[in-house]
Design a protein that fits this description.
By secondary structure, this protein is α+β, with helices and mostly antiparallel strands. The protein is built from five helices and four strands, in the order ααβαββαβα. This is DUF559 domain-containing protein.
């Protein structure tokens, strides 16, 4: 399908955004463009004794929605290892204890959501885009 191939080309050429204290992955950038109202890279301290109890002095959430008290973690392939699964489970428990829900979204799911949103946008605004993207119509 022409649209799907075009989307794959777009996804592979999205630049990564660099920040002095953190670096977004391509998939985090994509997710952020779909949900611009979410706070990015929010740091949560684990408190006194946190290193011993939680294995870290702080956790940085990829995205945070303060209205629903939910964090969204964009998980790449590195989260499939046994070590990362244990570390993620401990991290999720920390947030659960603070009353914060964690939603983990795979890179693959971010790509699917991105393509779905783009297709819906083209269906709604297709005539606006037709001149600029004539080869897709």
């Amino acid at each position: 399908m022409i649209v799907t191939n075009a989307i794959k080309q777009i996804v592979t050429t999205i630049p990564e955004i660099n920040h002095p204290s953190f670096q977004n992955t391509t998939h985090e950038f994509m997710f952020g463009t779909m949900f611009p109202k979410l706070l990015r890279q929010v740091t949560f301290g684990t408190g006194k004794g946190g290193l011993a109890k939680w294995g870290s002095k702080k956790y940085v959430a990829d995205f945070f929605d303060p209205d629903t008290n939910t964090i969204f973690e964009i998980d790449g392939a590195s989260h499939n290892s046994k070590y990362r699964q244990v570390a993620d489970a401990l991290r999720d428990k920390f947030f659960e204890n603070k009353g914060i829900k964690t939603i983990r979204i795979s890179n693959r799911m971010v790509e699917r959501l991105y393509v779905q949103q783009l297709k819906e946008d083209i269906a709604i605004n297709g005539k606006k885009y037709q001149q600029a993207f004539n080869e897709f119509f």
